Amino acid sequence: MDPVSVIEGRSVSSSGDVLSRGLSVRALRNAHAGPFAFDVPPGTCLVITGTSGAGKSVLLRMVADLDPHQGDVALDGCFCSAMPAHRWRRQVVYLPAEPGWWSDSVLDHMPDDALTRDLMAQAGLRAGVLNDPVHRLSTGERQRLALIRALRLAPRVLLMDEPCSALDEGTTLMVEAMMRAAMAGGTAIVLVSHDPTQAMRMADLRRELVHGHFVGAAS
Ligand SMILES: Nc1ncnc2c1ncn2[C@@H]1O[C@H](COP(=O)(O)OP(=O)(O)OP(=O)(O)O)[C@@H](O)[C@H]1O
C-alpha cells in the first residue's frame, strides 16, 4: 500500500493528489494489470472497453477488493484499506458477468417486497421469476435479478461487468434506464461493455484497456 495521509480533513494519496467525492483509484495494480489511476464522481459513469482478456474484470475485482492488489482505492476520500472488507463491498458493489447464486431459490437472495417488484417491473421481468428455481431462469433473467440484488443495496459505486450481454436491445435500454436512475441518486458506475452503442449512450468518460493498461486519453 502506498503511503497516504490526511491534510485539512482531505485524504491525500502518495502522489500528492487530494481525493475528491466518489470513487478514487490511484496506482492500483497487481501482477496482471495496472497501474490504474482514475476518478468516478457521484452520479457519473466510466465505461471501460477492451478486447477479451485485456484485464477489465481484473480491474473491477481489484476495485471491489476481491483480488489482491497494491495501490489506493477510496470512496469519498475514505480508503478501502481503512475499513472492514464487508463495509467496503456493501458500498462498492461488484456485479460479475456471471453472477453467483448461493441457493437455487431466488427468494433466498432478495425478499418479495414492493422494492423488488418495482425494480422487476423496471427491468421487464415477469412476476414468476421470483418463484422459479435459479437454474431454470434464462441468462438474461439471472442478469437482471442480479442487478436488482445489487440495486437493493443502494450502492455508492456499482462495478458492472457486461450487465447486458444476454439482453435484447429493448431490454438493454430498460436496464440502462435503471442505471441512469441509480446515477441520479448519486451512484457512481464503472461499466465494462463490449457494445460501442451502449458505451456512447452511457459514458461520461471512456477508457480503453489493452494488455492490462489504459491506452489513449480519457474521452
Ligand atoms: N487470479 C488470476 N490469476 C492469474 N491470471 C488471471 C487471474 N485473473 C485473471 N487472470 C488473467 O488476466 C487476464 C485478464 O482477465 P480478465 O478476466 O480481466 O479479462 P477481460 O478483459 O475481462 O476479458 P473478457 O472480455 O473476455 O471478460 C486473462 O488472461 C486472465 O486469464
Automatic annotation (TrEMBL):
Keywords: ATP-binding, Nucleotide-binding. InterPro entries: AAA+_ATPase, ABC_transporter-like_ATP-bd, P-loop_NTPase. Residues 18-218 form the ABC transporter domain. It comes from Gluconacetobacter liquefaciens (Acetobacter liquefaciens). Pfam families: ABC_tran. One of its GO terms (molecular function) is ATP binding. Gene3D superfamilies: P-loop containing nucleotide triphosphate hydrolases. This is ABC-type iron transport system FetAB ATPase subunit.
